[in-house]
Amino acid sequence: MSFVIRTCRFSKVIELKSVWWLDVKGKIKGQTLTPKTTYAAYLVFKLAKRYEGLELATAIIRFVNESGGDDTGKQSRIVHLQPPRKPGSRQTVVIRRDDGWMEVEMGSFYVHEGEEREVEAQLLETRRWQTGLIIEGIEFRPVACLSN
Hints:
Blueprint: E1 2-6, E2 13-18, E3 22-29, E4 37-52, E5 56-65, E6 68-80, E7 94-96, E8 102-111, E9 118-125, E10 131-145
Antiparallel strand pairs: 1-2, 2-10, 3-9, 4-8, 4-10, 5-6, 5-9, 7-8
């Protein structure tokens, strides 16, 4: 994999220069999240001036145990990494943020009381040559909280 490290809000970000196999993962411990709350995971990124093969990718959200994968609650969806070219397109919405980055929702998940597993968000693309994706990170943010 060929990449360049840049600086931003986080200490480092990665720019993919030329890859065939894109596999990016972010994890967060379930016990650090508020119970009885729905969260969403967002890929925060930019596209370089020259980019290729970044039309879409598969986003996967799942809970994992210390011993590895646990497909309980696993969900996957296709996300588009470029803003829609046609008005009214039904593709996953890429949002331009005020800080100059873009984001796309990778999926959502519910945190039950006493959740001890990690939540893993993964972006995967293995069918085409890719270049020019600059990744700041994956953010986990609350969407809704249920009261007792």
